[in-house]
Amino acid sequence: MKAGRLAAMALLVAGLSACASGPVRRVSEPTARVQQLTVQPDGGWSAQLRIENFSSIPMRFDEVDVALAVDGRAAGRLTARPALTVGPESADIVTATLAPSVEAKLAIADALAGGRSVDYTLEGTVRATPDEGRQRTFDIRRSSALSPAPGLPGVLR
Q: Residue span of the signal peptide, if any (predicted)?
């Protein structure tokens, strides 16, 4: 009987100890990807970058600086200083503009005219500050593809 009481007390103490530690504060590397690329009337591009926070705590995204390549051709740099707080395990959109290289313009124009997808690569950094932490710089390297959006001329998603 005494052993049963001792076991019950040990379980109670262990249970209370687990409650005292609080939720886990995990900081994971964020990522960025192009959600939408729009060709502007002046030939420039507007890119909606999806910033994804995989951390268990909110993070404030202070700067995005990535090189964009389209179909293997350097297009230019996308930079933004959004000062945007993204909740834990969430995402938000940042818009950046770009005056693309001639080669990249031709690759996008060809993809739009042919109704085909085009590969892209983002490479650079994101500076973010975890909730109640210090600012950190995260390396970004992302490869994916964009396809023409039906019914939206000049738009790839």
A: 1-20
Q: pLDDT, tens digit, for every residue of 107-117?
A: 999 999 999 99
Q: Tell me the average pLDDT across 104-131.
A: 97
Architecture of domain 25-156: Sandwich (2.60)
What pTM did the predictor assign? 0.82
- The answer to whether 58 and 27 have CB atoms below 8 angstroms apart is no
* Phi, psi (degrees; rounded to nearest 5) at 50: -90, 115
Tell me the domain boundaries of the chain: 25-156
Q: Evaluate whether 66 touches 46 at the Cβ level (below 8 Å).
A: no
